[in-house]
UniProtKB/TrEMBL annotation:
Organism: Patella caerulea
Listed transmembrane segments: 53-79
Membrane topology: Peripheral membrane protein
A Gene Ontology molecular function term of the record: molecular adaptor activity
Official protein name in the record: Caveolin
InterPro entries according to UniProt: Caveolin (IPR001612)
Compartment(s): Cell membrane; Golgi apparatus membrane; Membrane, Caveola
Length: 133
């Protein structure tokens, strides 16, 4: 684990917010240089201090809650959902064979007979002049 890069998979890439990403002065509208620099310092310090204070108070309880939540999700998938899906696949596979056999025994002969019956039909088109085509 890299101590410098705490987001190696760029999960929170959208949260990389610097002063220049939030505040910008267009050409023709410039404040005093000292005011601009002090604003940057104030922004960065307040953002950093507030974030660190919130993580000091909330990081451990949130980490505990999220850890428990993902543990429960993993538990449900390992011990409930995956075996349930496997049981459904086994049972439905058996039903699929039964249904396939039923269709082949009962419905296929009827469809085959209808196909043979309708295959003897010939369609002819007669023009208004009575000429066959």
């Amino acid at each position: 684990m890299d101590p410098l890069n705490r987001d190696p998979n760029d999960i929170n890439d959208h949260l990389k917010v610097q002063f220049e990403d939030v505040l910008a002065e267009p050409d023709g509208a410039r404040s005093f240089e000292c005011c601009w620099n002090c604003s940057r310092l104030c922004f960065n310090c307040s953002k950093g201090c507030c974030y660190k204070f919130l993580t000091l108070i909330c990081a451990l309880p949130f980490a505990l809650c999220w850890g428990c939540s993902f543990a429960m999700i993993t538990f449900q998938h390992v011990w409930h959902f995956t075996p349930l899906l496997r049981a459904w696949m086994i049972n439905l596979g058996c039903m699929q064979k039964c249904f396939g056999t039923l269709v082949n025994c009962c419905l296929a002969p009827i469809c085959e007979a209808c196909g043979l019956m309708f295959s003897t039909i010939h369609v002819r088109q007669i023009n208004d002049s009575g000429i066959k085509s």
